[in-house]
Design a protein that fits this description.
Elements (H helix, E strand, L loop, with lengths): L1 E3 L4 H12 L5 E5 L8 H5 L5 E5 L6 H15 L3 E3 L1 E2 L2 E3 L3 H14 L4 E9 L10 E4 L2 E4 L8 E4 L8 E3 H7 L11 H11 L3 E12 L4 E5 L2 E5 L2 H15 L6 H20 L4 H16 L7
Parallel strand pairs: 1-2, 1-5, 2-3, 7-12
Antiparallel strand pairs: 4-11, 6-12, 8-9, 10-12, 13-14
């Protein structure tokens, strides 16, 4: 399933060409893209593609939930979530399935299997992470099986057994965008379902509108509006009674670092600070949904 919102048609075509041969049924859920982006005419004539056009931009979480509910009616065993700016390797799905079936045969409750993804602007593959004490750490590829447990995964590229959604629940569409996959992954973990990263499954994925360098690190920079959702949803998540104290501490310090960085070390720092502050406030008062 691909969720779209004002996509680059050329890039979307490339994604569809790559993923069509890897899945049995391709579903596109469009979040009310601009009228000049005619997704219906472009893709509905292609065999094996189903388009659901939403009447407005409901956010990525609700669009994914609509797609998941549709997948249940089709009778599929697994759901693969994809963003419009991702590009899987030709064998990504088969590698994800291999790991999923290995774990299921061992009796593991699988929440999701995610690929090793790279933003070409950064160069190195993103890490699979876990919480150690109150700090997030990287999982190294030390397993002979080629996969590791992770506390959560990004949604794009994540392969989930359809039955897991019945046990864990759907994505939280009140969050609209940002932290949706983190909240779902941590909620799954609380219920005994686990996420895993597959090093042999590869994907290209774009993070952020632009990148900036800071102390030899490449850091993705989103718009001030995205930072509003980021901070609001993180604060809201920290207030969930089921979230462990260690996770709350880890997220708190992560937000402090991000607030200082995006206020003082990127362009339009005042705009970022204003929207981050508003997000913090709305997270405390439970003002969720689309801004």
């Amino acid at each position: 399933m691909i969720v779209t919102f004002n996509p680059d048609i050329k890039q979307l075509n490339k994604l569809i060409d790559t993923v069509t041969s890897q899945v049995q049924h391709l579903l596109i859920v469009d979040n009310d893209s601009h009228a000049d982006i005619d997704i219906a005419t472009t893709f509905t004539e292609r065999a094996g593609i189903e388009l659901i056009s939403l009447s407005e931009n409901f956010g990525i979480a609700k669009a994914q939930n609509i797609g998941i509910e549709r997948a249940k009616t089709i009778g599929t065993d697994y759901v693969l979530l994809l963003d419009q700016d991702s590009l899987p390797a030709p064998n990504m799905v088969s590698e994800l399935l291999k790991v999923a079936k290995t774990l299921e045969e061992k009796g593991v409750h699988v929440a999701g299997i995610g690929p090793s993804y790279t933003d070409v602007r950064q160069g190195e593959a993103a890490a699979f992470v876990y919480l150690d004490g109150c700090r997030l750490k990287r999982r190294e590829n030390l397993s002979l099986d080629g996969f590791v447990e992770a506390d959560f995964l990004i949604a794009s590229g994540c392969l989930t057994p359809i039955e897991s959604f019945d046990a864990i629940g759907l994505l939280n569409d009140d969050m609209f965008i940002d932290y949706v996959d983190i909240e779902w992954g941590l909620r799954a973990r609380q219920q005994g379902y686990y996420c895993f990263g597959a090093f042999n499954a590869k994907m290209e994925h774009s993070l952020g509108d632009q990148w900036t360098e800071f102390h030899d690190r490449h850091i993705p920079v989103h718009s001030p509006l995205r930072h509003y959702y980021h901070f609001r949803n993180a604060v809201w998540l920290c207030r969930r009674p089921w979230l462990s104290f260690s996770w709350k501490v880890a997220l708190f310090w992560r937000l402090v670092r991000q607030y200082l960085f995006f206020t003082f070390f990127v362009q339009e720092g005042k705009s970022h600070a204003r929207m981050m502050s508003l997000g913090i406030w709305h997270g405390f008062i439970n003002r969720m949904g689309r801004k």
